[in-house]
Amino acid sequence: MNSEIASMIGKRLVIAVITLLIVSFAVFFATSMLPGDTATILLGQAATPDAVAGLRHAMHLDEPAVLRFLRWIAGLVTGDLGTSYANNMPISKLISARFVNTMELAGITALISIPFALTLGITSAVMRGTLYDRIVTVLTIGVISVPEFMVASTAVLIFAVYLKWLPAISFVNEVHSLYDLLRMYAMPVVTLTFVVSAQIIRMTRAAVIETLSTPYVEMALLKGASRSRIVLRHALPNALGPIVNALALSLSYLIGGVIIIETIFNYPGIAKLMVDAVATRDLPLIQTCAVIFCAGYLILITIADIIAIISNPRLR
Amino acid sequence: MSKLVEIKNLHVEATTDAGRRIEIIKGVNIDIAKGEIVALIGESGSGKTTIALTLMGYTRPGCRIAGGALLVDGKDMAGLSERERAKVRGTEVAYVPQSAAAAFNPSQTIMDQVIEVTRIHGLMTPDKARERAIELFKALSLPSPETIGERYPHQVSGGQLQRLAAAMALIGGPKLVIFDEPTTALDVTTQIDVLKAFKSVMKAGGIAGVYVSHDLAVVAQIADRIVVLKGGEVQEEGTTEAILSTPSHPYTQELLSAFEPKETQFAGKRTDKARPLLEIENVIAGYGPIQADGLPFMKAVNSVSLSVEKGRNLGIIGESGCGKSTLARCIAGILPASAGNIIFDGKELDHDARRRSREALREMQIVFQYADTALNPAKPIEDILGRPLSFYHGLKGKARDARVDELLDMVRLPKALRYRHPSELSGGQKQRINFARALAANPKLIICDEITSALDTVVAAAIIELLKELQRELDLSYIFISHDLSVVEAICDEIMVMYRGEKVEHLTREDVKSPTHPYSKLLFSSVPKLDPTWLDTLVLEPELVRQYGGA
Questions:
Q1: What share of chain A is helix, strand, coil (3-state, %, to 5)?
Q2: Which of A214, A221, A222, A240 best tests the B interface by mutation, with the highest count of B CBs <10 A?
Q3: What is the spatial distance between Cα B293 and Cα B285, in angstroms, rounded to a whole number?
């Protein structure tokens, strides 16, 4: 049985790598098709054709796209992420600090939102049909329906502009104490927790309700099991697969989908870096960011798949 | 004997989706003595499971105990708090579910679940509980009792799971065990082992039981007393012998007569020169990737040949998984056969239904087991029946309406039903509509795939009667697939026995009583008889059971 599991996990990993390759291919050619010529933009309108041609040659822009793609992939694999077009710095250097910032924001949000959302999801499933369940359902649907920029802008308007409790913009450099840190992270984290939790709550509730209506849960009840035992020992282990997948989907959003949050709070993370890179036509930077987002997403989904496989005794 | 259980004037209410309250149990009184097994028998919806579950102080969601007393060993289950009820569950009253396969948690080992009761109620140490469980496994004659508990539910067979569920119920040392149709989902050959195991363990421990079932023959083997229920009320109550020999209530008589196979003369006379209507030769079909020899990896039907003569019926019988439904799908072309010939009315048919002519499709119809899933719930009956009329005969407007009325008349349903949706019909009515849809094509052959197995005995018997009448009127032939020998015997001229995808025997009506193949012998002798001594006196050759028995 174990070799079967290993081969299933192996298959998932191969699929993940292939997906990553396809995505990087798509990203590369999509960015290559962006209008405007990088060399012209970099040198400005006054540049002579000779100078533009020279720069294009120096940047390998005159080579066929396939060749450039292979060169780029080879660089990625060996850890050389290339050089930014815009300010001539190694991309790895540009990204590393930003990556840490994004992971901090994502990590703190995950630490708060996962226990919060799981608790709400499970309790509302157990107390299905009660006032508590209805309030949770209405609130989660409300939060899902309101776009995140709306939540973020409203929060800025209230807490930063009117009440002046919190800073509107996150300046990582000005953090001197734990209090500063809390103030800085409060609004982005709360906004993200809102958006991320709503999905987890709904998926968890649905998954737990489904297992709660199975005959083996009824059987546990007829054995005299207490409610907590029924939920923790019988319902949850069988709802694990869908719940882990919901978690993975929501968390992957924290890595790649925080563009709006990072932009509104001017938080120096990777997503903000990518938005800036688009503005300056900094192709290598855009491509690298996109691949990082995709990799993060794939890692989380693959982990969720593997947990789902392992938690299923039919495959053990 | 002193009373262990007294149900006094029990009322249970259910709340419908529309919020209306209806009474589903209307003042039921039942007593059970210590060590006595009482059967609750009745059709679906008669309230038998609901009553049994109230003995644990439990009602399914949407139902509640509205009145009456439920004394179990002196405690009123209706009056206890949820916490006090939980204490009784598993220790004093235990439950054996209908489908053990669904009642076992797929993510825990069997042993963990069997001894969970002792853990919840703190009855004994886990080691002691494991020992006790292994003793029970032995008593229930489970194979490899020492190690079977380490497996997961999906790794053991249905019959074994059902016995394991009994072990799970017995480990807490209950005074009363509730069996909720515990053998309905099993093949007859497996059912015997399970029934025997239940009976010996219950008798040995002097445990009282409530046995919920719709099958009188099964109940006759195990129960001391029978309570007949209908519409949430007790119709008749008495000892097993009394109910079986001298039933007084008309409903009980109806139940008994539905069970007895009727002697009817068969319309189909064998004419010597008759050309077979359907002939299939060496058909192979199955699932999974196609191998190098062009055959599927998993052969569900392995080189089966058969023929059906005009006006005669062929029954195909076998246990679940023997390939009988696959064979039906293969003849109908839904699952194209990988090899072999299908000759219908002298013409060779394509294996794939999509490449058969409309006329060939029209002449052979198939009726599925579950009318619930076979009828489009969004369409009224007239559209469901009208569709094949337009498709095969191009009928429209008035002509079509008239034909729909005729069809409803043929299956003995009132014309007014044409405006209803399937959800507004009973199970038997739905199956009639399902059958009328096949008739709409004016077929020569109808393949009936387990069409009575989801129906109550009385309703099923009526459907079989209908099929016979229609055969006389319309000159039809049936292929009748079932796991239930009595149903097949009631309608078929010839019977084919399948085992593991192969045809093992072909019998005519005359030699049904004396099959020659060992598997047919085992299968036929495993069908429960109404005689209460049948199970105790039944002797099966151990060699046969080892080779072909369930589990």
A1: 80, 0, 20
A2: A222
A3: 13
- Residue count (chain B): 551
- pLDDT tens-digit series, residues B448-459: 998 888 788 788
ipTM: 0.76
B89 closest CB neighbour out of A224, A233, A312 = A224
Residues of chain A with pLDDT under 50: none
Cβ distance A225 to B102 less than 8 Å, yes or no, reads no
**What are φ and ψ of residue B316, in 5° steps?**
-115, 125
Distance spanning both ends of chain B, measured CA to CA: 38
Residues facing residue B71 across a β-bridge: B6, B76
Chain A residue with minimal CA distance to B152? A313
- Minimum CA–CA partner of B155 in chain A: A314
CATH code for position B361: 3.40.50.300
Q: How far is CA A228 from the centre of its chain?
A: 33
Give B380's DSSP letter. -
Quick one: closest CA in B to A233, which residue? B108
pTM for the full model? 0.77
**A151: enclosing H helix or E strand:** helix A148-155
pLDDT tens-digit profile of A180-217? 777 778 888 888 888 888 889 999 999 999 999 899 99
CA B430 vs CA B366, B384, B412, B421, B425: distances in Å: 15, 11, 12, 10, 6
**B61 inside domain:** yes
Domain count along chain B: 2
Query: Over the stretch B496-506, which tens digit does the pLDDT of each residue have?
Result: 999 888 898 88
Q: How far apart are CA A275 and CA A279, in angstroms?
A: 7
Do B162 and B113 fall within a single domain?
yes
User: What CATH class is the domain A96-311?
Assistant: mainly alpha
Residues B164, B222 within the same domain: yes
Is B223 within 8 Å of B39 (Cβ atoms)? yes
Q: Cβ of B56 under 8 Å from any chain A Cβ?
A: yes
Question: Do B46 and B76 sit in the same domain of this protein?
Answer: yes
CB-based contact B13:B62 (threshold 8 Å): no
Domain that holds residue B464: 276-382+442-529
> Which CA distances in Å does B88 have to B72, B82, B164, B499?
9, 10, 21, 45
The H or E element containing residue B540 is none
Do B157 and B283 have their domain in common?
no
Name the phi and psi angles at A168, rounded to 5.
-75, -30
A225: distance to nearest CA of chain B, Å?
Answer: 6
Nearest by CB to residue B102, choosing from A216, A221, A229, is: A216
Q: List A residues 70-89 in contact with B (Cβ-Cβ < 8 A).
A: none
Burial of A79 (0-12, 13-18, 19+ CB in 10 A): exposed
How high does pLDDT run on average in chain B?
86
pLDDT digits (tens, 9 = 90+) for B113-162: 999 999 999 989 999 999 999 999 988 888 889 999 999 888 888 888 88
DSSP string covering B305-352: EEEEETT--EEEE--TTSSHHHHHHHHHTSS--SEEEEEETTEEPPSS
- Asked whether the beta carbons of residue B103 and residue A216 sit closer than 8 angstroms, the reply is yes
Q: Give just the sign of the alpha carbon dihedral B246, B249, B250, B251.
A: negative
Specify whether B39 is located in the same domain as B146: yes
Phi, psi of B32 (to 5 degrees): -135, 130
Beta-bridge partners for A17: none
Is the sign of the CA dihedral B226, B230, B232, B234 positive or negative?
negative
User: Is B336 found in the same domain as B282?
Assistant: yes
Amino acid at B61: P
DSSP tag of A99: H
CA distance A237 to B175: 32
